[in-house]
């Protein structure tokens, strides 16, 4: 799979994770360890996107997988 295709997939994933539909699941006034669930969700989704972006960017110059 080429790097461009992975980046498009990552963009689609990020679009879904930060869409009102996905965020709507966490808008209840629930606390997880004293922290609002919505806040935890936003930071966890952001961290996931950053990690996946780093993995995609780590590929070779032609979009090859790293050794």
Instruction: Give the overall average pLDDT.
Output: 86
Instruction: Give start-end ranges of low-pLDDT stretches.
Output: none
- Helix and strand succession? HHEEH
* Beta-strand fraction estimate: 5-15%
Q: Please report the distance between the alpha carbons of the first and last residues.
A: 15 Å
- Total number of β-strand segments? 2
Count of alpha/pi helices: 3
The chain-level structural class is mainly alpha
Q: How would a textbook summarize the main sheet?
A: 2 strands, antiparallel
Percent in helix: 55-70%
Please state how the strands of the largest beta sheet are arranged side by side: 1-2
Structure notes:
Helix 1 packs antiparallel against helix 3 (37-57). The protein has helices spanning 3-17, 20-24, 37-57, and strands at 31-32, 35-36. With 67 residues, the chain is mainly α. The protein contains three helices and two strands; from the N terminus they run ααββα. Strands 1-2 form a two-stranded antiparallel ribbon. The two termini are 15 Å apart. The chain is 61% helix and 6% strand. A hairpin with a 2-residue loop joins strand 1 (31-32) and strand 2 (35-36). It has a domain at 30-67.
Topology (SSEs and partners):
Elements: H1 3-17, H2 20-24, E1 31-32, E2 35-36, H3 37-57
Antiparallel strand pairs: 1-2
Which key terms come to mind for this protein?
elongated; 2 strands; 3 helices; 67 residues; two-stranded antiparallel ribbon; single chain; mainly alpha
